[in-house]
Amino acid sequence: MSHEVLEFDQVSQGLLEKAERDGVETIWDRKAAMKAPCGFGEKGICCKNCSMGPCRISPVAGKGAQRGLCGATADTIVARNFARSVAGGAAAHSDHARDISHVLYMACENGNYKVRDVNKLMKIAGEWGIETAGKDTYEITRELAEKALQEFGKPFGTQNFLSRAPKQRQKIWKELNIEPRAIDREITTIMHSTHIGCASDPESILEIAMRAALADGWGGSMIGTEFSDILYGVPTARGTEANLGVIEENMVNILLHGHDPSLSEMIVLAAEDPELVQLARDVGAEGINLVGMCCTGNEVTMRHGVKIAGNFYQQELAVLTGAMEAVIVDVQCIFPALARLSDCYHTKFISTSPKAKIEGSIYIEFAEEHALETAKKIVREAVVNYKNRDRSKVLIPENKSKAIVGYSVETIIGHLDKVVNSHTDVFNTVKPLSDVIWAGVLRGAAGVVGCNNPRVKHDKSHVTVIKELIKNDIIVVATGCAAQAAAKAGLLTMEAKELCGRGLKEVCERVGIPPVLHMGSCVDISRILDLVSRVAKERGIDISDLPVVGVAPEWMSEKAVSIGTYVVASGIDTFLGVTPHVTGSARFTDILTNTIENKVGAKFFFEEYPQACAQKIIDRIEEKREKLGI
Ligand code: XCC
Ligand code: SF4
User: What is the DSSP string of 428-462?
Assistant: First the structure.
């Protein structure tokens, strides 16, 4: 096994050498074994939507097969493949939200799941037109949850949360006929329209994809975020630490990995159970150390300050430390490879969701009805496993960084309120934020989001783009694995203000915030939609007028395709550091990176070099400022 030398993440380097010594395989090895990716797949010109195929279109114009057996062109095939990725991503986010809605429905006074934020419950009930007067909290909760569940399959009408968008944006959606209706319906429509013999017009296929993506952003993801807040509390600013150094030598280590907070919230409770803490001491450990990874990690760090072990690309490394008693997973972004890897150590790899049974894992089904009981059972498995740890196999990297997390929209506004001092100023609004942007103290804002991808160096694109932006007075909000990359790089600290331009530095000092704000998991990109909508509405303009951008420097998942699509369809330019599988159609590529702007006021940019990407973002932001005359 030989590994490419990593210039960027030295933590990974040490553990990869250990992997070689231990004779275990990681994604780095599998990437090397994979050699060059399939050229047709990479360009998006392989179709297997029916069994006459697979049909592969020759990438050379005018030479070789230019049409599939049914006559589908490269433009059609690329558009259909893209739309199907959106469907996959929107399905994942939205099914997550459906589960949260079910949990909200079963919440009750004496149950494991309770309403932790009555304010938010009341606010959304109000938004959705639910009568609250004279009703008991849990009556309202059930009514709201039921209404949310109908968002997935209601026969008529559009998504309730669309009303949060500025009027101008809603008008664009209406005119294009891309206002999302029931979430499941939009996903189904993609699958239907991309079936053999249906839509072939790439413009129309993209519109269908945008509508489903919007059902994700303003539907599923927003429901996921808001309802999690009702159940588990609105995140507030708090300190934590990030990187593999948060794994403790003398404690029972448990890694929470996946996406659904309903499981991880209960594990957090279970890990505080005095009986289990005592059991940990009885087996010779100093206590129980929960650490998080990917978006479940983000959910519990936002609400409890649970330390961040790392992001997507580090999941195997956490096991490789030899000090991980259990890896507990729910859904999404979990390498099946963890099963084989865990076998080489004492680690118990525990899967919990009937939607994500993983071969070779220990399966303990997490039924929400017996949530805490099951969580305790799982934690107990981890604790008793401590004595099986082979000390000779342990290598815990020292690297970790301090970080401040927990910036929900409410928390950001709360911080802004603190700097409003004149009695004429309005409280509880985003006005101070828009004021500093209009004054030019901040040039604009960027949402840096998304995954890790071995097609680029681990975390390098995230960190390079973010540093360049804050240096140029562009404030950054981050979610997902991008936020974890920023945390590890020490960018979620007050000290990071020293890396900023003068304007952003001053804002950080006055408001008391880091220049990069961790806004949560990937469904929490809906928090960013909420924030930009508030700024646009406060100024009486559309989202597409604002000097704000979305960036996904290292994205890889279908969820990210859906996200990018709804962000663009919401009027925000989106910069992708990894080029999607569309380049086999010059026409579809042109639609995404050019003409789509005529419809929705925003477009995609593909730029793989982070430095160049940052420069393009800065240019675009200045262009928007000029148009606004600010
Ligand atoms: Fe997964 Fe959400 Fe991507 Fe990270 S950022 S690799 S999707 S965990 Ni969502
Ligand atoms: Fe080939 Fe058309 Fe079938 Fe696709 S749908 S596999 S292009 S025949």
Answer: SSSHHHHHHHHTTSS-EEEEE-----TTS-TTHHH
Report pTM: 0.97
Could you tell me the pLDDT band of residue 7, with boundaries at 50, 70 and 90? very low
281 and 427 inside one domain:
no
Q: Of all protein residues, whose CA lies closest to atom 2 belonging to ligand 1?
A: 295
Closest CA to 221 of 457, 543, 527: 527
Q: Of 368, 393, 418, at which residue does a domain stop? A: 393
* SS3 call for 241: strand
Of 557, 559, 563, 566, which is best to mutate to test ligand 1, by the most ligand atoms within 8 angstroms of its C-beta? 557
Residues 166, 143 within the same domain: yes
Q: What are phi and psi of 481, to 5 degrees?
A: -70, -20
Cβ 292 vs Cβ 264: under 8 Å: yes
Residues with beta carbon inside 6 Å of ligand 1? 259, 294-295, 312, 333, 450-451, 480-481, 521-522, 557, 559
Report pLDDT for 2: 38
Last residue of a domain, one of 212, 232, 252: 232
Residues forming a β-bridge with 606: 576
Is the residue at 554 inside a domain?
A: yes
Is residue 55 in contact with ligand 2, taking CB distance under 6 Å?
A: yes
DSSP 253-280: EEEEESS-HHHHHHHHHHHT-HHHHHHH
CB neighbours (10 Å) of residue 401? 19
CATH of the domain at 537: 3.40.50.2030
Q: Which of 154, 160, 122 is nearest to 138 (CA)?
A: 122
Please tell me the total count of domains within the chain: 4
Question: What is the domain extent for residue 547?
Answer: 402-628
Quote the CA–CA distance of 465 and 453 in Å, as a whole number: 15
Report which of 160, 88, 149, 91 is spatially closest to residue 126, judged by C-alpha positions.
Answer: 160
Tokens (6 digits) for 359:
């071969």
Residues 382 and 435 in one domain: no
At residue 549, the 3 state secondary structure works out as strand
Question: Identity (one letter) of the amino acid at 418?
Answer: K
Residues 236-294: tens digit of each pLDDT: 999 999 999 999 999 999 999 999 999 999 999 999 999 999 999 999 999 999 999 99
Q: Is 381 exposed, middle or buried (0-12, 13-18, 19+ CB in 10 A)?
A: middle
- Classify the C-alpha dihedral 312-317-319-323 as positive or negative: negative
